[in-house]
Amino acid sequence: MHLGLEIGKKTPVHDWSTVVKSLLQSILGAISMVMLVVHTLFISLFVFSSIIWKVMLPQRLRHKWADPYVIGVANVWLAGILWWLTNVLRIRFDVDNNVKLSMEEWYMVVSNHQSWVDIFALFYVTKGKIPLLKFFIKKELMKVPVVGQAWWAMDYPFMSRHSRAYLAKHPEKADDDLKATKKACEKFSYVPTSIVNFLEGTRFTEVKQQKQKAPYAHLLRPKAGGIAFAIQALGERFSSMIDTTIVYQDRAPTFWDLACGRVGTVTLRLRHIEIPQQFIRMDYQNNRQDKKDFQQWLHELWLEKDALITQMKAGTSSV
């Protein structure tokens, strides 16, 4: 057998600068995760003391004494996280906000959803300008150490999110989320509150978009139920709805990308949306026309947001 040698074939050369950069980013990611755990464990001492205080106080004194303490602890935790994101991980937040904000008002904040980074981006743009954001949380996350208990102490609403298959077998559970929303909103009515709703209900992916056959280029279909119930329960108290649009430079970053400092610039655009009076007084659950009109209203808002994302990605947005 004749063995020939390929003459002139170049041997692949490793891009050592890329390898070193990737290694340094991974080291930074590990350090970031450790610092997050240490920071959270330190704050947990104050979280659990606030929980004990909240449980021991009578109901009428919780909102006056315990809740401000819990919010204060949460703000300290959040300030540490945001400092690390901006000063160590060098995330740049490009914010265009023409919305007048106040700590003395109630707000409904809606946003598109692509990544865990969305949550920190929303905190960054609203911290100290409106009441601390409160999210609708999956009930299973209540078991997360420290964080789950902190969410409970801050009266975050925990939702069951039953599947259609489960509800088919247990129809009596269909109103669980509605009851949870109403119960949470009763607590929110005492002091100014900001409620966040990721209307898509899950993080955007192209696979989910194709499965839904969503009529948008960058978004999933908005889910109307949760926000409808919140508006019904607290509509008269909302001074406005803040529509937030979030866009990343390339792709939506993972949590590990965040820890490694691979996020870059996060672009946010905020706008004020008036909630029509007809929806504040609607009966979303029982009135078909109310339900249809509200869903159409959200669809039109989502079409506008989709067009804005296209402009932002092209670098031509002007809000």
Automatic annotation (TrEMBL):
<feature type="domain" description="Phospholipid/glycerol acyltransferase">
    <location>
        <begin position="107"/>
        <end position="249"/>
    </location>
</feature>
<keyword id="KW-0812">Transmembrane</keyword>
<dbReference type="Pfam" id="PF01553">
    <property type="entry name" value="Acyltransferase"/>
</dbReference>
<protein>
    <submittedName>
        <fullName>Phospholipid/glycerol acyltransferase</fullName>
    </submittedName>
</protein>
<dbReference type="GO" id="GO:0016746">
    <property type="term" value="F:acyltransferase activity"/>
</dbReference>
<keyword id="KW-0472">Membrane</keyword>
<keyword id="KW-0012">Acyltransferase</keyword>
<keyword id="KW-0808">Transferase</keyword>
<dbReference type="InterPro" id="IPR002123">
    <property type="entry name" value="Plipid/glycerol_acylTrfase"/>
</dbReference>
<keyword id="KW-1133">Transmembrane helix</keyword>
<feature type="transmembrane region" description="Helical">
    <location>
        <begin position="65"/>
        <end position="86"/>
    </location>
</feature>
<feature type="transmembrane region" description="Helical">
    <location>
        <begin position="27"/>
        <end position="53"/>
    </location>
</feature>
